[in-house]
Amino acid sequence: MNNIFYMALFNLFKIKYSVFFMLFIVSNWANAQDCQNLTPQQLNQIQNYAEAIVPIVLFKLHPAPNNDTERQEKLDSLKTYDYPAYVELINNIQGFIANTSQEQQVCFYKIADNTTVNAWISYIYRKDAPTNESLSPEFQKGIGILAEINQGVIDPFRSTEQYLLTVKGLLAYTFAKEQAGGRIRMMLGPSLYYSKQEVDVYLTSRMEVRIYDLKAEPVSLGTFKFLLEGSTDLDGLWIAGPGVGLEFPQFGVKLLHQWRTGTAINQLELGISYRFLN
User: Given CB 3.0 to 4.6 Å as the disulfide criterion, which of 13, 130, 144, 276 pairs with 172?
Assistant: First the structure.
């Protein structure tokens, strides 16, 4: 109980400190001589980078160690235990250096007026930011579980069409060189198919391929993916076909078109899913 109380108190402190820091930035913006010649669009760009970079530095990397060895150890710890925050930090520092003018950078440093923030920006840019491709927090490496519910139709637009409801529980493994940014995810598990007032059990396998990350700078929103799924039952009936999906943190949506063996020809599924573990 004490741990819960202290954690809640700590989170409240972080929120208040974050609000205080942002109000401090805004209150000093207009008075900073180094910012007076910037356009509103340039000031807004700096503010966006500040809102993405500063909270991670203050809440996860504060204070900055005095030497590069300890700095790298602290950065490696963030990469291991909070990879999405690590990716957001690295990508935004890279973007901040590459996409802002010298006048904007001077304004940022003057307004932030925080040695910890400035020290980490300098160190991370020297060590990690000069890369040819931004890191992706999507498709995190490792084992996960997908719970999914879909509604659809068998033999759509035909006289034999039937309502279809499916529930799937799939064990997944995502392949990636880093902690995230993978391209391939393999899945296997049972599925329940309900139609014609009957419930059938299938074994379902699926491959997902990450195609394109969805971004609203300076953060990642999710990813667009391609799916290829196949299911079979004990009687040898096969259902297989491609689909597309949108994956957000934890939740996702997908559209699947599959062909069937047996009396029916094809089916459509539209559903939502929830991911556990990764």
Answer: 144
